[in-house]
């Protein structure tokens, strides 16, 4: 049954994507109500698969692919809700593609990393902060890609940059820094809560995770300082946001990917 739900969810995500792409490529009108209706069903089904795969009778299975699927759900859900007020057509196909890949991978490459949230409420707080910090800063990275793409199109003086389905460049930049501020605040709380709630936070097997997370935190802080104090804009901003997100991805998933996927 779970396999059927996953296939249907992937189909709905792809259907929404194919309804969006013509508007981005040919500047045709995108039916917002239809796209969001299809997406809503896909998100409900996606959430149901997460409940089934993560919550088991013997504990919570927070395998790397289950976590990736959960993160992709959060990103897709947040961007879809934001679509009620902001034009994010450029970002949705990327988010939906990530959701499709993570769903399929979690189904066909099963993994196990059992934890017990009921034994440590503090750990739950730390995990929630970490998930939302990562998801928010990944959304910032997607915004950075959109910013770089719009900037390139404007410099090329192509009509694509004036696509009514895309937001203005300056608005994207403002939103990017608001998102980074929120994400970096959540990351700060994550770094603070780690030593408080995770017993072996600085153990030899997790030191690299703490170190890389701190480096990513520094990168985003330097970016914020550079923008507000030095007036950084354009490519430099995009590169800093993408590099910060990449380092954070290595921190969150790097060693676990090797341990749970490559070495199994």
TrEMBL record:
Please provide the record's keywords in A-Z order. Membrane, Transmembrane, Transmembrane helix
Q: Name one GO biological process term.
A: cytochrome complex assembly
Q: Which residues form the Cytochrome c assembly protein domain?
A: 39-262
Q: Which residues cross the membrane?
A: 6-25, 34-58, 64-82, 89-111, 123-145, 176-198, 210-228, 237-255
What InterPro entries does UniProt report for this protein, alphabetically? Cyt_c_assembly, YpjD/HemX
Q: Does the keyword Secreted apply?
A: no
Protein name as annotated: Cytochrome c assembly protein domain-containing protein
Query: Can you name the source organism?
Result: Vibrio ezurae NBRC 102218
């Amino acid at each position: 049954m779970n396999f059927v739900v996953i296939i249907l969810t992937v189909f709905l995500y792809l259907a929404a994507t194919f309804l969006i792409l013509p508007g981005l490529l040919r500047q045709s009108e995108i039916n917002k109500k239809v796209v969001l209706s299809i997406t809503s069903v896909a998100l409900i089904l996606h959430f149901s698969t997460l409940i089934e795969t993560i919550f088991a009778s013997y504990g919570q299975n927070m395998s790397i692919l289950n976590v990736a699927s959960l993160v992709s759900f959060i990103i897709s859900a947040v961007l879809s809700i934001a679509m009620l007020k902001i034009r994010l057509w450029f970002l949705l196909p990327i988010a939906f593609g990530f959701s499709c890949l993570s769903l399929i991978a979690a189904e066909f490459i099963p993994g196990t990393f059992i934890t017990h949230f009921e034994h440590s409420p503090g750990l739950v707080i730390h995990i929630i902060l970490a998930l939302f910090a990562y998801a928010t800063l990944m959304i910032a990275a997607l915004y950075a890609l959109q910013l770089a793409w719009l900037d390139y199109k404007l410099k090329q003086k192509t009509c694509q940059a004036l696509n009514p389905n895309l937001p203005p460049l300056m608005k994207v930049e403002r939103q990017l820094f608001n998102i980074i501020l929120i994400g970096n605040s959540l990351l700060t709380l994550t770094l603070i809560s780690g030593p408080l709630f995770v017993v072996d936070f600085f153990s030899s097997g997790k030191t690299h995770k703490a170190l890389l997370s701190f480096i990513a935190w520094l990168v985003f802080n330097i970016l914020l300082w550079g923008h507000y104090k030095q007036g950084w804009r354009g490519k430099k901003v995009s590169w800093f946001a993408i590099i910060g997100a990449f380092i954070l991805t290595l921190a969150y998933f790097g060693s676990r990917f090797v341990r749970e996927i490559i070495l199994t």
